[in-house]
Write a structure and sequence with these properties.
Layout lengths: L18 E2 L19 H10 L1 E4 L5 H14 L3 H5 L3 E3 L6 E5 L1 H4 L1 H7 L2 H11 L3 E11 L7 E4 L1 H9 L6 E7 L10 E3 L6 E2 L11 H4 L10 H11 L11 E5 L4 E3 L8 E10 L46
Antiparallel strand pairs: 1-9, 2-10, 3-4, 4-5, 5-12, 6-11, 7-10, 7-12, 8-11
Bound molecules: ligand 6CS and fe (iii) ion.
Length: 316
């Protein structure tokens, strides 16, 4: 295979030490054009930790219609049989639904809410599009967890995402508490790229979305990063928002509580970071995992224009 200049070699046969990321964390910091609602303290915190947490970002009554629509979708047998719906490897219940912004106008409009899009453009320093959207579901008493990983490691290897210039916005559709498998993050882990061992099998995504075996960092690197930065698991009511950098290591435990945990994820990629050929996989993944066609810059849309100009304060 031609050895194109790959800035982040991974899925290797031999071990390689972690090394510093090549891109800034907040892009175009000095360009006034990309100013947004985040103040200096928030930008510095994002640069330090690799994520920002907004408890009660949206009010619960704004979030309820999204959760109700998801419950309606679960009755659509054709959709539930499609390959963009991933079943839980243990219970067979829904684990993930990909392509939410293309399945629902309500979810599509939310990707363009100025209160989220304004922050995302500010962090990425450019126009943006949706690389991937999904809902990760963990029903009570059985929702399986997700192993430690960097999303960017997968998106670089399997989707051909060249640089670290993407951010995930995760909106809690249900309360996230210490018992129902909240997302755990390692603050500061976004600053190092951790090459992983093990070549990517053909059609790896058919298994990796149920349980990730390839592209999982080695335990020594995980331990070193957790020793340095600790582990944080933001908790809060439905409507809370987590922004996390594409290379921040994260994981989550299985849901041993009676309460469901449903989180919506919009992955925003810079229009200057469009997908190329996979850097470490035999062939590209489907469109619903890594967008190659629907990549027009997002236009803002506000479902609550009467609240415009109130910054990112929670919608009560
Ligand atoms: O492969 C992916 O794109 C997905 N895998 C994980 C574990 N997180 C990011 C993304 O949804
Ligand atoms: Fe992930």
């Amino acid at each position: 295979m031609i050895d194109r200049n790959d800035a982040y070699p991974t899925r290797l046969r031999e071990y390689h030490e972690p090394f510093p990321r090549r891109e800034p964390i907040v892009h175009a910091r000095k360009e006034r054009r990309w100013d947004g609602p985040l103040d200096e303290v928030s930008l510095s915190r994002y640069e330090r930790d690799g994520f920002l947490w907004f408890e009660g970002f949206f009010s619960k009554d704004r979030i309820t219609p999204f959760f109700k629509e998801l419950q309606e979708m679960a009755k659509d047998e054709a959709l539930m049989r499609s390959e963009q719906v991933i079943q839980d490897p243990n219970s067979g219940a829904i684990r993930s639904v990909f392509g939410m912004h293309e399945l629902s106008d309500r979810f599509d409009r939310l990707t363009r809410d100025p209160r989220i899009l304004g922050m995302v453009r500010q962090l990425l320093g450019s126009e943006v599009y949706i690389h991937q959207s999904r809902i990760n579901d963990k029903f009570g008493f059985q929702g399986s967890g997700f192993d430690w990983h960097s999303d960017f490691e997968t998106w670089h290897s399997e989707d051909g995402m060249p640089k670290m210039r993407a951010v995930s916005a995760s909106l809690m559709l249900t309360d996230n508490n210490e018992f129902n498998g909240p997302l755990m993050l390692i603050p500061g882990s976004h600053r190092l790229f951790v090459p992983c061992m093990g070549e990517t099998p053909e059609m790896n995504w058919r298994e990796s979305l149920k349980a990730q075996r390839i592209g999982v960092p080695d335990k020594d690197a995980l331990a070193m990063l957790a020793e340095n930065g600790g582990i944080q698991a933001p908790k809060g009511p439905a409507g809370s928002l987590l922004l996390f950098e594409c290379n921040t290591l994260h994981a989550s435990n299985e849901n041993m509580s009676p309460w469901p945990r449903s989180n919506l994820f919009f992955v925003y990629n810079s229009v200057d970071n469009a997908l190329e050929e996979p850097f470490a996989a035999p062939s590209p993944r489907p469109e619903f995992l890594g967008a190659r066609r629907n990549v027009r810059p997002l236009e803002m849309h506000d479902d609550y224009p009467e609240l415009a100009g109130q910054g990112v304060s929670p919608l009560r």
